[in-house]
Design goal:
By secondary structure, the protein is an all-alpha fold. It contains 14 helices and two strands.
Length: 380
């Protein structure tokens, strides 16, 4: 049981992590005149430098040998690296091209995409409320497609890429810093080659726009790693249900920045589409919190019965071996592709998406029933 002080600290860490992810649209425009591809390449390269230094200070290298000996996990790391490259690149381009609101929509609909992937790929069964949420989300996309005159491709690419990233991260099952280090190690050489090629052609902005601009490009690594560290600190201090609610901060901040700071247009049909998305998320959150309360109640009832009997675990329904109910709540947050994991700790037990900023659904305690999305690290 965590102390009140630890939980307060965890809450602040969580707000800090999702707050940074939510405010990151303010950072990418500072890197102009660098294009989205050059910014992406710098983010790949400098992220490895920052995360590598963090692992060096923490002396956490033993996972590398184990990972190298597992070709399947290496393949999944490569898949995750490719998918997150798409996600990062589209997000940076969207922000610097005036599509912050549409980008925020991608992280709003991510939990719905996660659930859809669970049904289609993992053959999971949904509770009625989850079907309502998914159906409402699909209707929202249809309304937005009419409003935009085309499907909201930016939102869909961000949502599906991060859901796929979460699925890969779940199967890789290593810590947040370690996973980011492995992914950026795969991306480092292609990114460095691209940056050298830009420099050879005289088209690189690094070093030609002044020292301040060069430092900002180098800071992309810190912008990537700092929220991840805060998220890890929060994940070991607060319940998953709390993180699940906190992770809505990121797309909410992005949405508000798009409207109030970047002054992006919001015609009536776009408001209608967003309203449907928020309705779907409200249903999803209510269902997850209700399931969490039921899970805790069942666990408490089992513990009370065991204590009263004084003869060992009680078997529900009087048949079969005793089952230890998970006292932790099912989460109500956005699934971004990654299970909540803290640096240096085992990943939170969630069965797959994602991240972000988490993404793999947690299993309902009722046999054969559906899932609730786990909080994750939004990748922005």
């Amino acid at each position: 049981m965590k102390s009140d002080g630890e939980q307060r600290a965890g809450l602040l860490y969580g707000i800090g992590a999702y707050g940074m992810w939510g405010l990151v649209p303010l950072f990418w425009p500072l890197l102009k005149p660098a294009g989205a591809t050059e910014i992406l390449a710098h983010r790949m390269a400098w992220s490895l430098v920052v995360v590598g230094l963090a692992l060096l200070v923490l002396r956490r290298w033993s996972w590398i040998r184990e990972l190298i000996r597992d070709p399947r996990r290496l393949g999944l790391i490569a898949v995750a690296a490719v998918v997150i490259t798409v996600n990062w690149g589209v997000y940076i381009w969207a922000v610097n091209s005036g599509h912050v609101v549409e980008a925020s929509l991608g992280y709003f609909i991510n939990p719905l995409v996660t659930i859809a992937i669970g049904v289609l790929l993992l053959k999971e069964r949904l509770r009625p409320a989850q079907w309502v949420a998914v159906g409402t989300g699909a209707l929202a996309v249809l309304v937005l497609a009419v409003g935009y005159g085309q499907p909201p491709w930016i939102s869909l690419i961000l949502a599906f890429s991060f859901a796929a990233y979460g699925l890969a991260k779940k199967k890789i099952n290593i810590g947040g810093l370690e996973s980011l280090a492995a992914e950026t190690a795969i991306l480092f050489l292609p990114a460095l080659a691209f940056l050298l090629w830009l420099g050879f052609r005289g088209e690189a902005s690094f070093g030609t726009e002044g020292a301040g601009h060069a430092l900002l490009l180098a800071a992309t690594g810190l912008v990537t790693a700092a929220p991840l560290v805060c998220f890890g600190a929060a994940a070991i201090r607060v319940p998953l249900s709390t993180l699940g609610l906190l992770q809505y901060l990121a797309p909410v901040f992005q949405f508000l920045l798009g409207i109030l700071y970047f002054h992006e247009a919001m015609p009536a049909e776009r408001w209608a589409g967003f309203a449907l998305v928020w309705l779907a998320l409200t249903v999803l959150t209510w269902d997850a919190l209700r399931t969490a309360r039921r899970t805790r109640a069942q666990a408490e009832a089992l513990r009370t019965a065991e204590s009263a009997a004084g003869t060992g675990p009680v078997t529900p329904s009087g048949t079969g071996p005793a089952v230890a109910a998970d006292p932790g709540p099912a989460t109500a947050g956005v699934s971004t592709g990654m299970p909540p994991e803290a640096p240096g700790t085992d990943p939170a037990p969630v069965p797959a998406p994602v991240p972000v900023q988490s993404a793999v659904p947690t299993q309902d305690v009722r046999p054969g029933r559906g899932t609730a999305p786990a909080p994750a690290e939004p990748s922005v």
